[in-house]
Specification:
By secondary structure, the protein is α+β, with helices and mostly antiparallel strands. The strands form three sheets. Strands 1, 2, 5, 6, 7 and 8 form a six-stranded mixed beta sheet that branches. The protein has a two-stranded antiparallel ribbon with strand order 3-4. Strands 9-10 form a two-stranded antiparallel ribbon. The longest helix has 15 residues. The protein starts with 11 loop residues before the first strand and ends in a 22-residue tail after the last helix.
Length: 331
């Protein structure tokens, strides 16, 4: 998600099963996508098991530090550490009684809520991101979080070098440098009907990784006319996404079959679980949940067909290696 920094957003706790880990992780939503300010309703409910804040060490052992070395926090909290994009705000003290060097850590995150013009933004982002992780795309981990008043938002771990918003990709360079991920992104966007993929919701930092994010305009994309979600899902189930930002820069389509198989391997139980989570949070009703599962299962076995139907847009592919047979996948 892109947006202006909002360091003042309230933190939410994440607890583990073991009591020694109860306060080990603290997610701090710092950006609300496409909003001007954080409304009062965005204040996150604290986890019921949350203990009082522990003092933060002036120096703490950090992921990525030299063996046996120490990594300072505080003013140096944005020093490059860890693997991937995930931004550690600061390290705290080692949890008393824990084994294996478990300590308290505060992580920055990006959060979104529904808006009047995007009433299913949270559902779309949560379900699509969950399925993206299931197929192996580099989607930043995220979850639903509770807001005061009973509403829910979607929060995902922040990414970017030194805590900054990650830069957009340059599509030709990205497809040349990361052709496997590029094919996976295209195939996945066909599955969830994400018609809003562009250079600003993909990011690639060499030697750190790729981030695929911002799925609020996928899946249940209700038009301004106010059409209900079930009708929209039924009407859109066979739409082919023709103008993906990466297609004309792909030179090697040989990676597609692996992604067709990955998407086809996601079971109905996994799809249903993601939709059920949104239903349990009262973000969608039962009929919309069932229509969403049906929509995803229907498109899941047709990704090869959708890609073949857009083959004319792959201007830099010298030889089209994909056959026209419809994929036998899904569960």
């Amino acid at each position: 998600m892109a947006g202006a920094s909002n360091e003042s957003a309230i933190t939410c706790g994440a607890h583990a099963a073991h009591t020694a880990l109860r306060d080990a992780v603290d997610l701090q939503p710092k950006v609300l996508h496409r909003t001007q300010a954080t409304p009062p309703s965005a204040r996150v409910r604290h986890c019921s098991c949350r203990q009082q804040s522990r003092p933060v060490c002036s120096r703490a052992r950090g992921v990525g530090a030299d063996a046996g070395g120490m990594m300072p926090v505080g003013s140096d909290r944005h020093s490059r550490n860890g693997v991937g994009f995930f931004d550690v705000a600061n390290y705290g003290a080692i949890i008393e009684g824990s084994s294996g060097g478990v300590g308290s850590v505060r992580l920055n995150a990006f959060a979104r809520q529904n808006t009047p013009d995007r009433p299913f933004a949270v559902v779309n982002d949560y379900v699509a991101s969950t399925l993206g992780m299931a197929v192996g795309l580099p989607v930043p981990p995220g979850t639903l979080f509770g807001l005061h008043g009973g509403d829910h938002g979607y929060v995902s771990l922040a990414f970017g070098h030194r805590g900054d918003v990650a830069p957009p990709i340059i599509p030709p360079k990205f497809c040349a440098d990361r052709p496997w991920e590029a094919c996976g992104i295209i195939a996945f966007d066909h599955w969830v009907l994400n018609t809003d993929r562009h250079d600003q919701n993909l990011s690639h930092i060499p030697d750190i990784g790729v981030a695929v994010f911002d799925h609020d305009l996928s899946l249940i994309n209700v038009p301004p006319s106010g059409e209900d979600a079930v009708t929209a899902l039924a009407k859109n189930r066979d739409i082919v996404y023709k103008y993906h930002c990466l297609t004309r820069h792909i030179t090697d389509p040989s990676h597609f079959p692996e992604w067709f198989a990955r998407i086809g391997s996601v079971t109905r139980r996994e799809i249903r679980r993601a939709a059920d989570t949104c239903h349990s949070a009262k973000l969608i009703d039962a009929s919309t949940r069932d229509a969403l599962v049906s929509f995803l299962e229907y498109r899941q076995t047709r990704i090869r067909t959708y890609v073949n139907q857009t083959r004319d847009l792959y201007q830099n592919v010298a030889s089209w290696t994909l056959d026209m047979e419809e994929e036998d996948g899904g569960s």
